[in-house]
Write a structure and sequence with these properties.
The protein is an alpha+beta fold. Helix 4 links the parallel strand 6 and strand 7.
Length: 188
Amino acid sequence: MMEKIKGIRRETWLLILLAGVLLLVISLPTEKEQEPEETKESARRESTEAAEYADQLEKQVEELLSTIDGAGRVEVMLTVESGGETVLQTDSSGEERTVRETDSQGGQGITTEKSASTQTVLSGTGDEPYVTKELCPKVTGAAVSADGGGDGTVKAEISEALEALFDLPPHKIKVLKRVEESEKGAVP
């Protein structure tokens, strides 16, 4: 048998190798796998929920900031992380087992085996998971346009209010002087 293998010419080995590479290339997937529809729908829902949350929050912040002395009319734009987080109740259990072994020559060994399992707790009314808390998307930046945005004191108060409300660093907050529609086209 070995003599037959040794007797195969170089060109034959090259053909066998090329045939193997060809089979490998043919077996590779040609189309990009598409995301499951559930994943796309979930991402769309999270995006819509985050946008609705941001809109609601912007209105509340506009109402609050417009009460600052000298701020005047205020418009707010907030950026938020995509989607919030739902924390589910889980039950965890674990087990640890230690085994001491002695071989025939007097050597000793210790083996420790660990196992753990986690299960989601379901509500008593059905197959729905038990939700312990829901976290809203985190605000990551803010832009404010205010009538009094050109005044340093008003600008500082608006910025400090946003820092306190959302734990934002100052470089993630921009306060601008609001310009009326009629003033936009006017050249000074």
